[in-house]
Amino acid sequence: MKVTVLYNLPGTSSTTEIAEADNDTQISAIGIFEELKKLGYQAEILGISQNEIKKLKNLKTDLVFNLIEWSGRESKDGTKVLEILEKANIKYTGSPAWGYRLSCNKILMKKRLDEEKISTPKWQIFKTGKEKITLPYPIIVKPSSEHCAIGVSQTSVCDDEKSVRVKILELIHLYKQPVLGEEFIEGLEAHVTVLQKNGKAWVLPPAVIKFLNHQGFHHILTYESKWQNDNWESKFTKWDELKLSDNILQKIEKLAKKTNDKLGGRSYARIDMRIRDDEVFVLEINNNPGIDFDPDSGIAYSAKKAGLTWDSLLKNIVEEAL
């Protein structure tokens, strides 16, 4: 069986942050390609630019392992890729086009979470920075259409109106898109991977992040802490081996399944949650998360907890997509 590992080449408006994320995607694509070959698949790897998208309608393969992840205003091109594959009746891993589009746009995502009555922090959209602020403090501020924590830093958590407005204007200027403000939920963060087993959602054990206390350090995953291993912040986040209560675990599983179902998760998805006392909140769903077996990866941590190896994880994704 022929499997094409498809990934995106850097976009036309890539910043340094986006370029680093795109480089990581290419590294993941190579790792998946090599492992699929070891598993006996007829594997090929294909990196495409945005002006090559239409050529995919002529692609000859049994399955596309989709790693396309253009960011920000260019995320619409990732949706185009999936729409072309669907029209050409080419099977692919991951979310359908509508779910991919939704998870690339935090405004659409938050609206859908509210419509489905899925617990999520209070939120507000800012297009100019002059809007009346209706959220309780502290507030976390982030770009509405970026991924990989792009645009998220320690200054994203704001305790007063002045700092919120300064941050909103900064992000609008840098990323040329609306800004999402959210009630900041202090507590544990959990990354919940949802695979499929026999066509049904399979929620893996959550990868829980413990934030260590440090003066001036907000308990969040910033771009620097995720991508710059030598950054001081990375020393204060780690996977936590603590045992969550059965009540919290049940809430996580129920929320993960509902979010995955209602927001277009398929094949594999990662749902980021926050836990405050006995409350669980869905921050967002990533319907096309990075896939690797690096110890720092949430999907790798959860897969190992579920008894999966790198090859059995990839085999599950491929077989469930067929």
From TrEMBL:
Keywords: ATP-binding, Cell wall biogenesis/degradation, Ligase, Nucleotide-binding. GO terms for molecular function: ATP binding; D-alanine-D-alanine ligase activity; metal ion binding. Pfam families: Dala_Dala_lig_C. It comes from the Bacteria. InterPro entries: ATP-grasp, ATP_grasp_subdomain_1, Dala_Dala_lig_C, PreATP-grasp_dom_sf. PROSITE patterns: ATP_GRASP (PS50975). GO terms for biological process: cell wall organization. The keyword Cell wall biogenesis/degradation applies. The keyword Nucleotide-binding applies. Residues 110-319 form the ATP-grasp domain. Belongs to the D-alanine--D-alanine ligase family. This is D-alanine-D-alanine ligase. It comes from Candidatus Amesbacteria bacterium GW2011_GWA2_42_12. The lineage of its organism: Bacteria, Candidatus Amesiibacteriota.
